[in-house]
Amino acid sequence: MKSKINQAIKYIIEEKLVAVPTDTYFALSANGLSHKAIEKIYYAKGRDYSSPIPLLISSQDMAKNISKNLSDLFFKLTEKFWPGPLTVVVDANENIPEIVKSKSKKVGIRIPSHKVCLQVIKETNLPISGTSCNISGMEPSKNYNFIKKNYSKLVDFVLEEPCGIETAPSTVVEINNNSIKILRLGAIKKEAINKHLPEILIN
């Protein structure tokens, strides 16, 4: 397994595309700080440039290097649900290429609950793209044999390790002042967030 992980790390550093298992589905991963690498993702997926690319990170410190103003509510929320299937949309700073944040000037970030994925992020010391490994509009997959068979032209390398047990995509939220807006329901339910933060307005 170590050699496969090392190969994935090498390719990401070289700005290539790698199918990486996560706690939800396989991600089409690349160096999240490289315009060139992210441009390859848009081309490979046939994705509209108006859709920002989410990033997978390995620590709160990495989040601080991505966003310029993380609130107390951000830390209360993520300390409970990270690592895990919760993507939080934050204001992106100058470290993030324009192609990642698109016109919104924001980026979705999360710490996945997947040992192999986290190892790749930690050893590259880079945020990596977390968009699903599929053609835009098609279903994501948890099966690396399916990825190899159907998306061999999409990626330079498939990290052949199982995904986690989550059967839904990550829940996507955005923090606005002292409230939380759910942009996409997924593995983490509104009720779970509300139970953890009963004093916060969630819509």
Shape: globular
The CATH architecture classification is Alpha-Beta Complex
Number of helices: 8
Please give the order of strands in the largest beta sheet.
Answer: 6-3-5-4-8-9-10
Radius of gyration: 16 Å
Query: How many strand units?
Result: 10
**How much beta, percentage-wise?**
15-25%
Poorly predicted segments: none
Quaternary status of these chains?
single chain
How many domains, in number, for the residues?
Answer: 1
Overall pLDDT metric: 95
- Biggest pleated sheet: 7 strands, mixed
- What is the CATH class name? Alpha Beta
Element-by-element helix/strand order = HEEHEHHEHEHEHEEEHE
Helix fraction, binned, reads 25-40%
In the CATH hierarchy, the third-tier topology is known as DHBP synthase
Distance between the termini: 42 Å
Per CATH, the superfamily is DHBP synthase
How would you describe the overall organization of this protein?
The protein is α/β, with parallel strands linked by helices and 203 residues long. It has one domain: DHBP synthase (Alpha-Beta Complex). The protein contains eight helices and ten strands. The strands form two sheets. The protein has a seven-stranded mixed beta sheet with strand order 6-3-5-4-8-9-10, covered by helices on one side. α1 (2-13) packs across α6 (115-124). The longest helix has 12 residues, at 2-13.
Quick recap of the structure?
The protein is of the alpha/beta class.
Question: Key features?
Answer:
single chain, 203 residues, alpha/beta, DHBP synthase, seven-stranded mixed sheet, three-stranded mixed sheet, 10 strands, globular
